[in-house]
Amino acid sequence: MFVLEPILTDGIAQLSYFVADTGTGTAAVIDPRTDVEIYESLARKHGVSITHIFETHIHADFVSGSRSLADRLGTAKIFLSGVQADYKIDAEPVSDGQEFGFGSFILTARHTPGHTPEHLSFLMCEAKHPDQPWAVFSGDSLFVGSAGRPDLLGSGQVNELAKSLYDTLYNFYLKLEDYVTIYPGHGAGSACGADIGDRLNSTIGYERRTNKFLSFPNFEAFREFVVDDAPPVPWHYPELKKINSAGSAIMDRLPTIPALPPHAFRKVAREPGVTTIDTRSMTAFGGGHVPGSINIAARPEMSPWVGQMFDLKHRLLLVLDKDTDAEQIQRLVVRSGHSQFAGYLAGGMKAWETAGLPLERLEQLSVHELRDYQRTGTGPTILDVRSPDEWNNGHVPGAEHHFIAEMRDRITGLDKEQHYVTYCASGYRASIASSLMKSRGFQHVSNVPGSWSAWLAEGYPVETGKEVSHA
Fold first, then answer.
1. Quick one: which of 72, 267, 418, 455 is 20 to 30 A from 135 by CA?
2. Closest listed residue to residue 202, CA positions, set 119, 122, 142
């Protein structure tokens, strides 16, 4: 029996795949994530042995789990592109057109550069119809409604990669039959492609008719769209690329994270290179938190934001909602490349308060209060910390744009004595921004729970460019 199971990793919107043939008892995993137990569980569920681990390319947005999975299983080899490859991983090189048989099905590797020089895609066909692929694992070359970005290796290679991406899309993908199913490496929310669609798979025929990346009459127009209009590259992507090229650490278990009583926690928090992250909700954080801590709530999107905001050399201290949340939060954090944990606050904020240690608060403003401030003309300066595209599509009238990712190293152009209020789409990123500002000495900062979504829900005015309209 043939088995195909996609595994979606929320937060980083990454898709890996488990494919197996129960008749021969063999299986393969494509682009495994860091916490690899899920693949071993699937192998046991279907009574098969994972023999092959395929990487479509050297990833930039998450830590690869290939070496950890191979070490854990003891039965599988890692297979990576042997074309224009630049990595130090102990892996079997794969060439364009190389076939891998798994009883009832065959995977055929195809060199599909553009997102990266070495990128591979894998065509799938039935063994009895070897010349008629019915599916393709496209990695980060073709997405639902989008395509992989060619600018992650820096400006020096972007033109060459953009040309390679154009050739891949127009001379490989568009020559496949319309019925071929596309299984991409990412879903909506990943920064590896612009505006990736919500569906987890598609077909060549559907993308041929709807995907703008496949609609350009010439390379020049394609390049302008793909390169000039690309969103900012997340800061940590080049660092993760280096980690995965060198070979990510084998993780047979989650890193040790000491439980620290309040006074010990406070002492460690003052050490150089230590960052304190409060993983509770924005309203809980606002009500009282450890001075200097940054609020990144324990949701799937925690993974990319921890990676985006903090150097991988930082040692992380965690404040949890419950001590039993430690393992779940560690799993989210290690996907971002962070593996150095200084500890967590044993007993949480209740223990901190009982110990009589100082608290800071972060004011939470409703959209109604923010609108009332606007009407009086005496309110705080409003900071929109969303992406440039979100800002351009509409924002609170009178707001200033300060993209949160650009606050990572320094916050420029703002007076620490003034009153600022931050908002984003829901309040999640705004709470990161406002807590970051507080930690850097801004005296009066407020956050808006619900943020832009709540603003629109109330029908308040919307500004696009210099025009003000009503939602």
1. 72
2. 142
Give the CB-side neighbour count of residue 150, counting CA atoms within 13 A. 27
The rounded distance, in Å, linking the Cα atoms of 94 and 122 is 11
* d(C-alpha 83, C-alpha 94), whole Å: 8
Place of tokens 């278990």: 253
Q: How many angstroms separate the CA atoms of 433 and 384, rounded? A: 10
CB-count burial class (<10 Å; 0-12, 13-18, 19+) for 441 = exposed
The angle subtended at Cα 143 by Cα 141 and Cα 147, nearest 5°, is: 55
Delimit the domains of the chain by residue range: 2-246, 259-354, 363-470
Same topology between domain 2-246 and domain 259-354: no
* Dist. CA 67–CA 227, nearest whole Å: 33
363-470 placed in CATH 3.30.360.10: no
| Residues of the chain scoring pLDDT < 50 | 467, 469-471
Q: Which fold has domain 259-354?
A: Oxidized Rhodanese; domain 1 (3.40.250)
Please answer whether residues 147 and 165 qualify as being in contact, where contact means their C-beta atoms are separated by less than 8 angstroms.
Answer: yes
CA distances (Å), origin 209, targets 163, 173, 203, 205, 212: 22, 13, 10, 7, 8
Which residues in 34-166 belong to E strands, given as ranges?
49-54, 77-81, 92-94, 99-102, 105-111, 120-126, 135-139, 142-143, 146-147
Distant-in-sequence, close-in-space partners of 315: CB < 8 Å, separation ≥ 6 = 271, 273, 274, 275, 340, 341, 342
Q: Bridge partners of 344?
A: 259, 318
What is the arrangement of strands in the sheet containing 274-278, beginning at the earlier edge strand? 259-260, 341-345, 315-319, 274-278, 294-295
**Cα(274)–Cα(344) distance, integer angstroms:** 12
Q: What's the pLDDT at 251?
A: 75
pLDDT given at position 470:
44
Phi, psi of 20 (to 5 degrees): -150, 160
Do residues 434 and 459 make contact, with C-beta atoms less than 8 angstroms apart? no
Residue 72's pLDDT is: 93
325-347 burial, b at 16+ Cβ within 10 Å, e below that, comes to bbeebbbbbbbbbbbebbbbbbb
- Looking at the DSSP bridge assignments, the partners of residue 94 are 81
Q: Which helix (H) or strand (E) holds 345?
A: strand 341-345
* 2-246 has CATH 3.40.50.10490 classification: no
What pLDDT is stored for residue 31 in this prediction? 98
Per DSSP, 140 falls in state: T
Tell me, what's the pLDDT at 466? Answer: 54
Enumerate residues 6+ apart whose C-beta is below 8 A from 446. 362, 363, 364, 365, 380, 419, 420, 421, 422, 434
